[in-house]
Amino acid sequence: MPTEVSRDEILRLRKGDRATEKRVFERLFNRVVSACCHYTPDRMKAEDAAAIAFIKAFTILDRFVWHHEGSFYAWIRRIAIREALYEMRKDRCFLALHDGFSADESWHVRADFKLDAALALELLEKLNPITKAVFLLINLEGFSHAECAETLGISESNSKQLLRRGRIKLIGLLENTSNKKNGKLGS
User: Fold this and answer.
1) Is residue 114 helix, strand or coil?
2) Handedness of CA 152, 158, 162, 164 (dihedral sign)
3) Structural contact between residues 32 and 53, judged by C-beta atoms closer than 8 angstroms
4) Domains and CATH numbers, the chain
């Protein structure tokens, strides 16, 4: 079964074809939930955000602009992520805005450090929720700082600061992990 939505399916969705809605939902739901899991603390909330996103997407389908086969998934994923972030804000999961970094800290990246996906996800989980959300929206979803700020209900400068803090913390965690693997004492 293909995982993308065809132009023909979009036309059927716009006509209100419930069978096509069901097929598209079943085909994309788990992928959308996986995207939401990066932004919400538990799978149930991610599933809720994804379900709400499908309802919204099918309701406002006239706003969708076809570009290519992957564009519908990208569009609904963006709606779902915004919904997951909205739910987090509503649940007050973004309480800790300060994670202990000073404005004058410097950092560097070791170019020879290789990172696997499992370690990357483990390290991302160590960021506080809002820093993680900013980091993922900018680096994974391709949001601008203005879009990120609007989505999270923060200022653009706060988005930039949180991204910087997230990078600094991740680099520190990576270096600590690297030092442990090489038998050195980490900081």
Assistant:
1) coil
2) positive
3) yes
4) 7-90 (1.10.1740.10), 94-187 (1.10.10.10)
Most confident of 46-50, 83-87, 92-96: 46-50
Angle between helices 71-90 and 18-37 in degrees, nearest 10? 60
* pTM reported for the whole predicted model: 0.61
Please count the CA atoms within 13 angstroms of the CA of 169 that sit on its side-chain side.
22
CB 51 within 8 A of CB 153: no
Rounded-to-integer distance, Cα 21 and Cα 50, Å: 14
Instruction: Report the alpha-carbon distance of residue 162 to residue 130 in Å, rounded.
Output: 8
- pLDDT level of residue 56 (50, 70, 90 thresholds): very high
- When pLDDT is cut at 50, 70 and 90, the band that residue 115 belongs to is low
Percent of the chain past pLDDT 70, that is, above it, reads 79
Q: What pLDDT is stored for residue 92 in this prediction?
A: 53
Q: How big is the CA angle at 38 (ends 7 and 128), to the nearest 5 degrees?
A: 150
The enclosing H or E element of 27 equals helix 18-37
Is the model's pLDDT at 12 over the cut of 90? yes
Rounded Cα distance, 180 and 176, in Å? 6
Amino acid at 35: A
